[in-house]
Amino acid sequence: MPQIDFRIEPWDEFWPDAIDLAQEEFDEYATALKLWKPHMPDTDVLGALAQQNRLVPMTARVNGAIGAYLVWVVDVDLESKGRTLYRQGPFYASQRFAKYSLGMRLLRKSLQLIQRNIIEPVEVDLHHPPVGRGVRLGKVFEAMGATKVAVHYRLKVSRKD
Predict the structure, then answer these.
(1) What is the pTM of this model?
(2) CATH class of 4-143
(3) pLDDT tens profile 11-20
(4) What burial letters (b/e) apply to 88-108, b meaning 16+ CB within 10 Å?
């Protein structure tokens, strides 16, 4: 039986171990989502956000190897002064460990951790891709009580002279 650990990790411990998994995520979705930009996370900015406790990397490790991650961005709620908003950032579970349901378990554990560490209610902004394995997350979010409030689009805008 493998050892599975769920935890919040400091950025400087998380990122070196997560680089390959982040590339795996990008490669899995790049074609289906018609991603046009290169995969080049700005680790300086991400590290600075983590130092400010505004970036919270959570992992599921199997015998020490990262099998899934969910990175929360802690933000201000622009629509309600004084409120905190947890935005789901990168969320990915490797198919290599699919039999352990790491993604779903990590999502539930991370929401429990948020719940234990807040004083007043916060809004949690969740999203999923429109294709691939992640498309099933919509039903999971709704089963947890989330309400669909938006559909996200990305538009490439280029300079025109």
Answers:
(1) 0.91
(2) alpha beta
(3) 999 999 999 9
(4) bbbbbbbeebeebebbeebbe
